[in-house]
Amino acid sequence: MKTLRHAIVWFAVICCVMAVSLLFEKPRDAALAFLFIIDMATPEASDLYQVVTDEIVVTHDSLDRESKKTLYYSIYSPPGNHKKSAIIMAHGFTEKGNNDRRLQRMAHRMARAGFIVMTPEFPMMRRFRISMEDADNTMEAFRIVKQRPDVDSSSIGLMGFSYGAGPVIMALSDSSIRDQVRFGVIFGGYFDIRKTLKYTLTGYYTTDTGQEMRSVSKNNDRWKFLLGNIPESGNEKSLVIFKSIIAQKITDAGYDPGKNFLSLDSTHQSLYRFIENQNPSAFDVLYAALPNDFRSKLELADLTSYAHLIHSYMIIGHSDQDRVVPYTESLALAKNLTSAPAPFVAVTSLFTHVNLKIEWGSLTQIFTETIQGFFRLWKMTYHIMRMRHIPVAIA
Predict the structure, then answer these.
(1) Which of 300, 321, 336 is the last residue of a domain?
(2) pLDDT of residue 394
(3) How far apart, in whole angstroms, are the C-alpha atoms of residue 225 and residue 227?
(4) Taking the model in full, what pTM does it have?
(5) Do 100 and 249 fall within a single domain?
(6) Which range marks the domain in which residue 243 is found?
(7) If residue 21 lies in a helix (H) or strand (E), which one and from where to where?
(8) Whole-angstrom distance, CA of residue 383 vs CA of residue 386
(9) How far apart are CA 3 and CA 366, in angstroms?
(10) What integer is the mean pLDDT of 116-138?
């Protein structure tokens, strides 16, 4: 019965979307966007998107730099000798880097849609470490893509997921490339690092209507984040014990350090209390007690001073069910794009952070949440598909 209901709903959605596609300026883009989402929802079961799109070629390359580390990247290329639009995709905090299966699948889909796609490797992100190096790598990736003979240099975009929004926003705002980047795409991204951390650690946030809310707090790799950003200051013996405690917490979030905690110096105790805390009322006090070098590193990742410098057209998506970054961060980002064209913003309930999760509950839920969320996601994807087309120069 449930399977039949799924089939009926999908058939209804397909008919509606195909009909609505004809009302758009680019019906083919609308239809392709729909198939794109279907492939996201059922990557193992759906092959329709593969049927209507061409095979692509994936290559792996690197750029050796004298004064910096080697930049490794993958290129996903659709067929054809004509110049194409391009997207540079930035992964977030993930130990697999650009080998993350979710990123690879997204790159495949985008390339099948007609984009040249580059996925750079961000070593700092792989280690859950905050660093300006990733923003520099994003700009370097842009310069590499721009020089490719199969890319139209006037139609290149940057795309960031989750904390990958950091290097993308910083790169989009940089005066050396900001007037050369046609568009940016951010999904599940953050804006204010302090508000984001408060939500990630305690579940507390303020909605877009000013209502104070608290969701269920999860660990969300908080200990991996701490391990990647431990300041070198403090007692050396304490640092060894502290790293051992963190390693235990990564394996078992419920681990109690007991006497080992008392062996830590004040620097490491303050870091532990901050990351361990799940009480919103204690957040500000614990934040103020952080070591200066750790707090400075956090503030280095803050994006509130970058958004107003962006000139590119922005496409922004977020889930209001996100338990890592609150959707209000994307709304704040959009509000502060004062030097850019009006952005497209879609808030949907179909994701858990950056992972698509379509819920099939009651018929009421299907029609009030699932289908509405699907159409918002479809419209966002349509706007991305529009970027495949090379802009026409006006004489």
Answers:
(1) 300
(2) 43
(3) 5
(4) 0.88
(5) no
(6) 197-300
(7) helix 2-21
(8) 5
(9) 14
(10) 92
